[in-house]
Amino acid sequence: MRCSMKRIMIDRRRLILALGGTASNHKSRTRTAEQSDEPTRFFASPLGKMPPGTRRHQTLPRVERANDFTIATGERIVLHGVSRASASCWATTLALDPTSRPILRRAWRLQRSLRASDFKNKFADDYVARDYVFFHLPAALLGIGARSLQAAPHLLSPQPLPSASICHVWGSPQQAVGSRGRNPDTDAMRMVEVDSGDTHAGRRRSSHRDLRLVWRHAYGGPVPHINGLAVGLDTDSSQGEVQAWFGDITLEAM
């Protein structure tokens, strides 16, 4: 079995993004008080305070500094993130069958793009803005390395790891909108570039995506249950400084 501890720690660095609960809760997929079928809306929060409920700031191992997150006003009340040679996410746990609500709606705005963004290069896997959708896959459908990763949560963190995820990013001009591929650090994450460069910097960009199609293009087959969402900024590799504003992420019926 070729799954070294170094590889496990690399996978954890990109995937341990606040899915909440314990390993036993994750296996049973029973909804708890920490889970919801509706992400907390950012604009429901008092100004300057973090969203209540299941959303939480999730730091990353082996990353010296975390981002700064606050609630701010603009066109709408949004989550404002500042990244200074840092990386972390704001995440929520979910328990949702996306076949009933497959449309992911999201919005973001950034100060400027980060030229050192390239999901094909593990040393340039930084982004001004990124959002994640986390999925639960039965162990029987996972590869050997992924099963080993799930089987050793006590070696990694009290938080369960997502077994598969899709990450939408605002990347650099070097990668065209619509570019997609595997994350350079882990086979359990697929990357999709939905915005790039500075053409739309300073403007609110909104989009909607059918997660059934996104999953089919990324992994193939029917879309599994969703167990988390997250937004974040990442400049720890490039040592840059950027800002981004995130609107609500919602999952809706057709």
Description:
This protein is 13% helix and 35% strand. The protein is built from four helices and 13 strands. The radius of gyration is 17 Å and the shape is globular. The N terminus is likely disordered.
In short:
With 254 residues, the chain is mainly β. The chain has a single domain, classed as Sandwich (Jelly Rolls), CATH 2.60.120. It has helices at residues 5-15, 23-28, 144-151, 211-218, and strands at 56-59, 68-73, 77-84, 87-96, 103-110, 127-136, 164-171, 180-182, 189-196, 205-210, 225-234, 241-246, 250-252.
Largest sheet strand order: 1-4-11-6-7-9-8
Shape: globular
Number of domains: 1
Class by alpha and beta content: mainly beta
Radius of gyration: 17 Å
The number of helices is 4
Instruction: Name the CATH superfamily assignment.
Output: Galactose-binding domain-like
CATH architecture: Sandwich
- Sheet-strand content, in percent, reads 35-45%
CATH topology: Jelly Rolls
Write the H/E string, N to C.
HHEEEEEEHEEEEHEEE
CATH class: Mainly Beta
Enumerate the spans where pLDDT stays under 50 for 5 or more consecutive residues.
Answer: 1-34, 144-159
Determine the mean pLDDT: 75
Strand elements, count: 13
Helix content range of the residues, please? 10-25%
First-last Cα distance: 43 Å
Largest sheet report: 7 strands, mixed
